[in-house]
């Protein structure tokens, strides 16, 4: 496999594990010192540190009942990104956002994640 194919496969595995709540698989795709940065000012914002912290954040986000619709997996010579459309409803609160989850890949595993959002204010309102 080429690096592009490896990164594409990594993105596909990460998304599939997120959708199926397969936390062990997500953890296996991460370096021990992985980080995940999310913008905003809410319960899921900031930086999650370490593989366990990244998995815990994914669990917390999924716990809000999100639908993680994959639009595209994007690859570069070294890294990978997921283009997603996340939706959810909780009472009168509705989440409808597009995002890019950019993953820094090191030695075939995710070393860092940085998420870019289309609606930070909407995310802040939903994740209270």
Rounded mean pLDDT score? 96
Structural class: alpha+beta
| Assigned CATH architecture | Roll
Low-pLDDT residue intervals, each spanning 5 or more residues = none
Oligomer state equals: single chain
CATH topology: Nuclear Transport Factor 2, Chain: A
Total helical segments = 4
| Strands ordered across the widest β-sheet | 2-1-6-5-4-3
Instruction: Please indicate the percent range of residues in DSSP E strands (runs of 2 or more).
Output: 35-45%
Percent range of helical residues:
25-40%
Rg on CA atoms, Å: 14 Å
Describe the largest sheet: 6 strands, mixed
The arrangement of helices and strands along the chain is: HHEEHEEEEH
- Principal-axes geometry comes out as globular
Number of strands: 6
The top level CATH class name: Alpha Beta
Number of structural units classed as domains: 1
Distance between the termini: 43 Å
Organism: Streptomyces paromomycinus (Streptomyces rimosus subsp. paromomycinus)
InterPro entries: NTF2-like_dom_sf, SnoaL-like
Pfam families: SnoaL_2
Domain SnoaL-like: 13-112
